[in-house]
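F.,

This is the one I mentioned.
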């Protein structure tokens, strides 16, 4: 038995509310909050009865044929989105689940991750800015404080010393003109690497290929350091 603080499992209704607010948060990100668009998505993904509940609980309001999150809806929508995307990164970068298994499991984990666990996951992963699909991960207090209570497993290549080894985790180079060239050289998630030097350029050995990278590119390459 333990006397430590316990977090009760969320009810099905609470999960539906969180899931719906996560959907609305995402629609807000892509700039499509029209009522005729949002309601069908929520009804298909969650239920046909949850939308009125969101209005009743004052998580959302309707203005000029669009849905708007209230302050309480904004907070919960942001929080569930952060938990979901952190769970996706954890399942992808640390547990190395297949792409088809990541989202279903993240959908379960997002409802039971406590604030303390979310902060620890974020710190462990080096405060990631994007989920595996490229969507932004809302910042937490640990990101603003740059908390390092545990040594991150996932970190920028620029944080490693010469001689370090590991695997490529993900790239924040989606719009970079050199992205496709780097991918063609084998700089893809899951690929082992050796870091030979960090100055004046970062020199990586990937298989039989050696790459020289400027620091502005190296800082956007996130890696899982060898343990």
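My design for it:
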């Amino acid at each position: 038995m333990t006397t430590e603080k316990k977090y009760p499992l969320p009810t099905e209704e609470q999960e539906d509310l969180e899931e719906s607010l996560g959907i609305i948060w995402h629609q807000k990100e892509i700039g499509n909050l029209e009522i005729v668009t949002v309601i069908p998505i929520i009804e298909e993904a969650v239920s046909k009865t949850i939308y009125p509940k969101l209005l009743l609980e004052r998580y959302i309001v309707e203005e000029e044929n669009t849905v708007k999150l209230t302050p309480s809806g904004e907070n919960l929508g942001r929080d569930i989105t952060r938990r979901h995307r952190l769970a996706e990164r954890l399942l992808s970068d640390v547990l190395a689940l297949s792409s088809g298994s990541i989202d279903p499991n993240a959908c379960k984990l997002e409802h039971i991750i406590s604030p303390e666990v979310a902060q620890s996951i974020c710190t462990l992963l080096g405060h990631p800015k994007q989920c595996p699909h490229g969507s932004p991960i809302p910042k937490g207090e640990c990101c603003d404080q740059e908390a390092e209570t545990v040594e991150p497993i996932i970190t920028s290549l620029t944080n490693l010393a010469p001689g370090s080894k590991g695997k490529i985790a993900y790239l924040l180079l989606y719009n970079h003109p050199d992205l496709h060239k780097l991918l063609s050289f084998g700089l893809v998630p899951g690929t082992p690497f050796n870091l030979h030097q960090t100055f004046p350029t970062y020199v990586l050995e990937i298989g039989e290929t050696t790459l020289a990278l400027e620091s502005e590119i190296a800082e956007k390459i996130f890696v899982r350091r060898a343990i």
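The domain at 154-225 is CATH 2.30.30.90 (SH3 type barrels.).

Talk soon.
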